Amino acid sequence: MFYQDGKLQYRVRVERPNPIFARALQQAIGGVEGEIRVMMQYLFQGWGARGPKKYRDMLINTGTEEIGHIEMLATAVALNLEGAPLSMQEDVANDGVAGAVLGGMNLRHILSTGLGATPENCNGVPFNASHVYASGNLMADMYANVTAEATGRVLATRLYGMTDDPGMKDMLSFLIARDTMHQQQWLAVIEELGGSAGLPIPNSFPQSGEKNEFSYAYLGHHKDGTTIPSGRWTQGPSYDGKGQFEPMISEPLGGEPELARPRPDSGAQSEQM
Amino acid sequence: MFYQDGKLQYRVRVERPNPIFARALQQAIGGVEGEIRVMMQYLFQGWGARGPKKYRDMLINTGTEEIGHIEMLATAVALNLEGAPLSMQEDVANDGVAGAVLGGMNLRHILSTGLGATPENCNGVPFNASHVYASGNLMADMYANVTAEATGRVLATRLYGMTDDPGMKDMLSFLIARDTMHQQQWLAVIEELGGSAGLPIPNSFPQSGEKNEFSYAYLGHHKDGTTIPSGRWTQGPSYDGKGQFEPMISEPLGGEPELARPRPDSGAQSEQM
Amino acid sequence: MFYQDGKLQYRVRVERPNPIFARALQQAIGGVEGEIRVMMQYLFQGWGARGPKKYRDMLINTGTEEIGHIEMLATAVALNLEGAPLSMQEDVANDGVAGAVLGGMNLRHILSTGLGATPENCNGVPFNASHVYASGNLMADMYANVTAEATGRVLATRLYGMTDDPGMKDMLSFLIARDTMHQQQWLAVIEELGGSAGLPIPNSFPQSGEKNEFSYAYLGHHKDGTTIPSGRWTQGPSYDGKGQFEPMISEPLGGEPELARPRPDSGAQSEQM
Amino acid sequence: MFYQDGKLQYRVRVERPNPIFARALQQAIGGVEGEIRVMMQYLFQGWGARGPKKYRDMLINTGTEEIGHIEMLATAVALNLEGAPLSMQEDVANDGVAGAVLGGMNLRHILSTGLGATPENCNGVPFNASHVYASGNLMADMYANVTAEATGRVLATRLYGMTDDPGMKDMLSFLIARDTMHQQQWLAVIEELGGSAGLPIPNSFPQSGEKNEFSYAYLGHHKDGTTIPSGRWTQGPSYDGKGQFEPMISEPLGGEPELARPRPDSGAQSEQM
Amino acid sequence: MFYQDGKLQYRVRVERPNPIFARALQQAIGGVEGEIRVMMQYLFQGWGARGPKKYRDMLINTGTEEIGHIEMLATAVALNLEGAPLSMQEDVANDGVAGAVLGGMNLRHILSTGLGATPENCNGVPFNASHVYASGNLMADMYANVTAEATGRVLATRLYGMTDDPGMKDMLSFLIARDTMHQQQWLAVIEELGGSAGLPIPNSFPQSGEKNEFSYAYLGHHKDGTTIPSGRWTQGPSYDGKGQFEPMISEPLGGEPELARPRPDSGAQSEQM
Amino acid sequence: MFYQDGKLQYRVRVERPNPIFARALQQAIGGVEGEIRVMMQYLFQGWGARGPKKYRDMLINTGTEEIGHIEMLATAVALNLEGAPLSMQEDVANDGVAGAVLGGMNLRHILSTGLGATPENCNGVPFNASHVYASGNLMADMYANVTAEATGRVLATRLYGMTDDPGMKDMLSFLIARDTMHQQQWLAVIEELGGSAGLPIPNSFPQSGEKNEFSYAYLGHHKDGTTIPSGRWTQGPSYDGKGQFEPMISEPLGGEPELARPRPDSGAQSEQM
């Protein structure tokens, strides 16, 4: 169950509202690297958590923090939209060039919300939950979470570089710090779960069930069939301590597939039968 | 540029076709843990690769392998659909219960493809590219790739458990082995890039730009304001060697947000102005 | 900013787990009538609220309640999946008919989550935020909210009728009660905003700007051009007290549209130019 | 069955074509507040109408009117695109600033349609039918329809404010008037269905089936657990005449959820079992 | 502008309602081969038609017919849902096997519509307008329309084979006939536009602008670099009368791409710079 | 199985990088007329091909070529982004007008990829596979493929016209030539399959199963019930040689539909029952 206090986790100030930066900020709300995604991901992971209870608490707790990050960003979007042009005439009056600002805005910020944020990315594509990972495998989920916080921090630093508004830089410096911590946090769970001893993921599947000769082979699909550039992944021990990397030229092990002819009543063309 | 030879990377046999398993296999084609996603992800990462060239080659090379995995799975779907019921009458004739098989199928396997695979997941939701990561940051991308192969291997082992067809188990044992290797492969790149020395991601952003007092703090959002269960993430050194984890009760650092009243011409209700 | 206590707003018990009912419950999580939608809608309305502050608090407060509803339903899905068949063999063993249960499940409940909920509807379609209303007009938003709670309560009563599990009926009886209240709550805001005096929405647009002869006319588009069945909407005063309903046969007031020929360099076929 | 006459319901003139306004108009075609949505919604409600026949006719009739609104708007988009720049060179020639117009356009207006409308919103996001309500409950549907016409009219008035083209203002003044009427029309059906006597929706579900102590309680989820600001929704009789509003501090009535440990063969990590 | 008469274009009878067939029929409503798609496609082509006016009329006219086809199919879905099980108990009572019917249904037919159609395909995926073609090139559009009617007729014949309900077969025999005609109709426009003289599409682009040595070459991407199986497309004159087909082994004409190193402030990892 | 050589099929040069043209190029990558779509379409058609084997090879072979086209375009996007403004300050410095370039960019090119391509269209809408045709009917698929190459070539010529960069024009002249060939190629298959003798599609369905009186009738849905403009489709022999075109005024052949009243427990409003 959840509670709120109507305040912001960190201050949100905008000195010079910029409607195009408002559009950019949307990526941190509804983009694949954004806060709605992590909020959903951590909460669904927590709600479905089976096994040790401590992870449920941690996931829901940090998921709860993320709701507040969406709140901060939604506020930042609204503040960046104060004074935005609502008409072609205002646009020209402000910038002298028709379309200079209006053309670069998410027009839904005017048309659909009256100068507020939307649950969309910077291109106005609505958030969709297809990429929320809650796999039931805690180790896999932790890598998904590191990914989310790594790409999230990359995004936040790019937004930081895009603006010179001191208020926005201040807000982003907080969000960047939180991303730093959250990367660490999920790595800490990986350590608790045994680190490389937990590989391959899932470690509950007996490796006797896999074709072991291909488990540590780097397959080359180069057309000439000879070039396999070397790297850490072509030599040395594997990280799970169970194999040795080796390069291998990929050869087709299966022949040409054979599908039955189409059945007469299956909608194919007669010439196919 | 790309080439093909019309053969399968590994043999695909189905002894007892099962149209419901055909539906399940679709998750490995078009699901978020599936092969279209990794193919796209590795290729786009490779095509956009800036910096050391060796990674471009590796990414495109493994992306090329993944196209062949989709091919294997699409073949497996088609073979599992051989002899599937095309009508209510056939369905009853086969199983004695109307809807037993037909009701559990992806009906597009009959209606849209004439017993072939689709670029969709197990629920018939079309693949969408919103969750393809190619961030321009190689380290972040590697974590995304480990995630993809970890969840992909979880999926493949679940499919392995779901069927008792020897041909399908054989095919999956190969794909599981490849997922094992690909998890290792991306971890090897992480090692080459410095491992934990590469943290926080992106490591090119000067940490002086973040609010350091929150960079290694685990924030508790528990309602009672006192309980913060401990874990590796509340104590000890951080993995980047730059801080110490600590628990911290989360307090609102920003007050209540203040948005301007709606402008008269912005479409709000008069009572709001 | 948000907080949590790890407990459920109301008890969630399942006496006889039913994986098909787990699928049905997903509609109340990720469907257009579901809880993710209202959570997002109330929070984004609150975060973007301009004008009287009391509504911001109420919207965020009730949005916060809704997060807990998702939590309850996600728990209910997980509990309905306890003991679900993970393989074709288990499926036959349990029910005697292959596919009886497995065929009716959201297979992602096995393949993607390991027996947990997803942010999807009952057909496995991921939640997408395209239908979240936060219009910047409080009155319009309140109608959207009544709609959400009306269709949400219709859904909840249908789920109530679908199951005979006492635990599930108990949980739903709570959610249905909350939907009752929330319908009332948004109607109360409509009353506070002036009720019918707030019509037409938005009431801040001067009606002199609209073609008044069509503002209270029910237009008949019947082919024969004469039949306009009567109803409250063809006679009597309008609800905003500003007009009288009247029936009117719809006639085209604009002629045939005239578009310019395609430009030579615009990609049209030569025959069109 | 449907008919057409090739004419426009109302005249569509554009004096000064503006490709950025063409993009804005798309929101009224394919946006969540747009005409494709209402057309689909009214028609599907009509086609699925069970019960009194008069509503079927009205819904299909007004749905038919809406097709003509899409036609008007598609024409308006095409007319606003007459003379739009097709190349970077033309763009500079027209405005002196590269990208001033082209950068603000929906580029599909050039690349995909050759200067015609698309079934998309103002950000180029294709219409999707996930938010079409046809619930089988007439009262719920009427609230959905008021919502559609309220947000639709808000949108139309914002478009009206955005342009100073007399032709476009004239067209919009007609569409705004129709939205006024349609808001009224659906409210008239609500009155015919008993108004507040129809609450809670659906009124066919016996309220004995709900947990009545929560049916008229406004639950406070404030962190401090004491503050519940008052409003019409915390006091006075409910609108269905069946209860009294009251404020209530929300307490968790369910404990911590208990999910079973993961099954050995379910793809979880060994450390979870 | 559009009109209606409340009647069906052709009779719709269902003798033995079948909720799983109701799900199948949805593909003909909201699937990629379905009627919403053609309705949208023909209408948007008509509304954006530039050039000879006769095609605008024909496109809008046939688009109008298609609205009536959606209506027929929506009616067929509703009739197939009469008497469908609304609960697990009813389901067992009817078929003796829990989930036999309910498990195979689109559960939204119960939960979201109260036994009516939705604007979705047979898997419950909402129609999305991303695949509506209105290219501004009439010839290209005609091929898109033949495609739509060809796949539409394939679908309709598969539905015809799936059912043995005489009413449904009767309805489908009408729709199949219309698809026959509509295939012909668009081919007739292709003839009017010059048939193969209209190739390549668009024929308004001067072929001097293309690399002619590759305009009629069938490129072989076979790994061994020698095998190019022959077909009509490797020999003989091209259909536009402007070239001769020839086989050609594909060789990379561009070298390895060279992208600049990442800029310091672009969010890449330091090791990439 | 697939192979690669790390080189480009054709050279990709950009003399004057243009971030807005980078956005435009995305349509050729992830748009409905783009290369991801044809790659997927040809490969899935090939992988599901039943019947004569030669078509499987050809489809997979050309699908393989298309992967290389995506590669070329992704490279072109990255090269057009070299030197793009990463901040508001850079934007003003470059163009003198804030937002002139940045406002017209796909901001994900900065924020999500660090100056690389995405699998999206020109509006930033992610590719979705809903419109990939692999129908199991070869003739229908060939028309889908002609459509793809026709609209693809229209798109490519529009991009050619939009830019004056010699490198980009050179690259496009190659892609346009390939589209020319691919249009021809699929038409060649249609000829091999019998051309018009293959109509109506599917030709394996006995035409005795369709309502023949409507198979070659052009139905007029004009409101006045008399006007049917003539064209090739209203007179003369049909292309399959089996009928004569004729005009026919469309009359409703079915009456008003009759749906049962809603069931008491189906969630409808009491007034509907």
From TrEMBL, chains A, B, C, D, E, F:
InterPro entries: Ferritin-like, Ferritin-like_SF, Mn_catalase, Mn_catalase_dom. Residues 227-273 are annotated as: Disordered. Residues 227-237 have a biased composition (Polar residues). Pfam families: Mn_catalase. Gene3D superfamilies: 1.20.1260.10. It comes from the Bacteria. Belongs to the manganese catalase family. This is Manganese catalase family protein. It comes from Sabulicella glaciei.
